[in-house]
Design brief:
Elements (H helix, E strand, L loop, with lengths): L3 E9 L4 H4 L5 E11 L2 E7 H4 L7 E12 L1 E7 L13 H14 L4 H17 L2 E7 L4 H14 L2 E4 L2 E2 L11 H15 L5 E7 L7 H13 L4 E6 L3 H10 L6 H7 L7 E5 L5 H10 L2 E4 L1 H6 L7 H7 L2 E4 L11 H14 L6 H7 L2 H7 L16 E5 L4 H7 L4 H11 L5 E6 L2 E5 L9 E2 L1
Parallel strand pairs: 1-4, 5-6, 6-7, 7-9, 8-9, 9-10, 10-11, 11-12, 12-13
Antiparallel strand pairs: 1-2, 2-3, 4-14, 4-17, 14-15, 15-16
Helix pairs in contact: 4-5, 5-6, 6-7, 13-17, 16-17
Length: about 450
């Protein structure tokens, strides 16, 4: 692969502005991103770099804003076709809409078709890395990983463990362990694939299977752990009845060795200070999923409370309870939820949570999320004039205001181009608002 360079305004937020302040931000109004063999070779001001790379072909995006590819830290690919399914809160919604849809993934052909559509939808929305729930079927994982391998995407996933699930979605202690071990062995080291031990949630696994999930996590130090935590009051009550001796929902997982630095817990809407202190101590991370929490009526996450305890935070679309594949749209809803909690989500911090922050929670922060030299060259070209309203709102605006407008008004239409490992993976017909040219 030959070297390539990309010229545009470039913005990355490798550190959390809530902690690092202005030092968290890297911004070049006229920037150059140089890529060699899929990795970032250099990033900085065009004036500083162009002479050094004068012989490198440059693609220029006048009016475009290059940011790292988005990281979706919690999403369900088998629920793609059940997005926007009316009615009920979490447990009833699962029974009515989701479990019947997931049962279809015993058919490998069905899994292949949905995996391909799902990943293309991620790319269309600027998402280049994701932590993904498949189903209980091993073939659902193979389908997702093969589609990701073909697109060179960084995808982390793992067979769902649920020996207490509905009859159509139930494994056994032995089959869950065997399938997980086989999948780890089959996919370890291939492409940009990562594995996650994935108990669905506490109610769908026996004590023995939860303990086995902890054993799997300990046996494979290169894998993550991905599950749900404290999403819905009905769910929390049911967990309390099932585990009366646990201090709280988090303690259920902790007793089985599932709370640690490789653990990602989706939702965490209703959390005690004690549970958050334990998460911080263990180095576990949270994926906040605002559109899902609003859609199912689960509650309003408290980012300020999480921040007080220093727990690592990321953003998840949580499709299909989540109502959009767009991380931009999801960040807009996160802002509104914070407002209802009496807080304000800075757009620069929002970008951090959706890029480097999400990568850190997923355990891939050394590889993606900040466009630092040596990282994989996954990036998005944003178009702040993608719609007439965006164009009018952002004309002459500061970077802060443009970014906030994109967060509140943007969706897939604001994604002009998506690049994966330096190669174009999606291109919107940008028309006159943003053009691509060689320089």
């Amino acid at each position: 692969m030959t070297r390539r360079a990309f010229r545009a305004e470039i913005l990355t937020v490798p550190h959390d502005p809530a902690k690092a302040g202005p030092d968290a931000i890297r911004h070049d109004e006229d920037g150059l991103l140089v890529v060699d063999d899929g990795l970032v070779l250099a990033r900085g001001a065009y004036a500083d770099l162009h002479a050094q790379f004068a012989d490198v072909h440059v693609e220029a995006f006048p009016g475009g804003l290059i940011v790292p590819g988005f990281v979706d830290a919690h999403v369900h690919y088998p629920q793609t076709e059940r997005i926007a399914s009316h009615g009920e809160q979490l447990l009833e919604w699962l029974d009515r809409h989701i479990f019947p849809a997931e049962a279809k993934f015993a058919d490998r052909g069905h899994a292949d078709a949905i995996a391909a559509f799902f990943l293309d939808e991620l790319l269309r929305n600027g998402t280049t890395s994701a932590l993904v729930f498949p189903t209980v079927h091993a073939c659902s994982v193979d389908a997702l990983f093969e589609a990701a391998l073909a697109r060179d995407m960084r995808i982390v996933s793992g067979k769902v463990l649920m020996d207490q699930g509905p009859e159509t979605l139930r494994d056994t202690l032995a089959s869950g362990r065997a399938d997980t071990e086989a999948l780890i062995g089959r996919w370890r080291g291939r492409g940009r694939i990562g594995y996650a031990v994935t108990p669905r949630f506490a109610l769908t696994s026996s004590d023995a299977q939860l303990a086995d999930a902890g054993d799997l996590l300990a046996a494979h130090p290169d894998v993550q752990m991905h599950t749900h935590l404290s999403e819905n009051m009905g769910e929390i009550a049911a967990v309390g009845e099932r585990f009366p001796n646990a201090r709280d929902y988090l303690d259920v997982y902790d007793r089985f060795g599932l709370v640690g630095p490789r653990s990602v817990f989706a939702h965490c809407v209703h959390m005690s200070d004690a549970a958050l202190a334990r998460m911080a101590e263990a180095g576990a991370g949270i994926a906040l999923c605002p559109t899902s929490n609003l859609f199912l009526g689960s509650g309003l996450f408290d980012l300020a409370q999480i921040d007080r305890h220093g727990v690592a935070v990321s953003i998840g679309t949580d499709v299909g309870a989540g109502t959009s594949f767009s991380v931009l749209h999801t960040l807009g809803e996160a802002y509104k939820v914070c407002q209802l909690r009496g807080a304000s989500l800075d757009p620069l911090r929002a970008l951090h949570l959706a890029t480097a922050g999400g990568a850190r929670v997923m355990g891939i922060g050394d590889r993606v999320g900040a466009l630092e030299p040596g990282q994989e060259a996954d990036f998005v070209v944003l178009d702040a004039a993608a719609t007439p309203l965006l164009a009018r709102r952002t004309a002459g605006a500061t970077l802060f205001d443009r970014l906030f407008a994109l967060q509140m008004l943007g969706d897939d239409r604001a994604i002009a181009f998506t690049y994966v490992a330096g190669q174009r993976a999606h291109a919107r017909d940008t028309g006159p608002s943003l053009h691509n040219a060689a320089r």
